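Q: What residues go here?
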């Protein structure tokens, strides 16, 4: 809070620090329970995905322009054929089918 100085005729303001409730300046972190192994990276013709929990996921391979190149569902181990995908940097988007929480992984395709 800013208060005027206690001296008559003073034009200065001074900050007053006291026990006021702290405003919220952050957000709660989401639990990163969803863990994935994506290999090899860079990929040539196949991306292997190992999911380290029992949740099911919807997986998208997205190019840098936002175009969805591959759209698939997951199992504990999933293979994505990238032989028809051009070289470049892509994003794997994992959407948890139960909680709708989204996790991203970067993948490079280089043939």
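A:
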């Amino acid at each position: 809070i800013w208060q005027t100085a206690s001296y008559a005729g003073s034009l200065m303001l001074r900050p007053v620090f006291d026990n006021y409730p702290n405003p919220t300046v952050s957000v709660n972190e989401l639990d990163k329970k969803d863990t994935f192994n994506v290999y090899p990276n860079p990929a040539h013709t196949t991306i292997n995905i190992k999911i380290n929990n029992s949740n099911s996921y919807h997986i998208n391979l997205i190019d840098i322009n936002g175009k969805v190149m591959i759209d698939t569902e997951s199992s504990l181990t999933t293979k994505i054929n990238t032989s028809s995908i051009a070289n470049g940097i892509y994003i794997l988007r994992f959407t948890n089918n139960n909680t709708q929480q989204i996790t991203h992984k970067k993948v490079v395709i280089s043939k």
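A: Context that may help when evaluating the design: The mean pLDDT is 82. The two ends are 61 Å apart (CA to CA).
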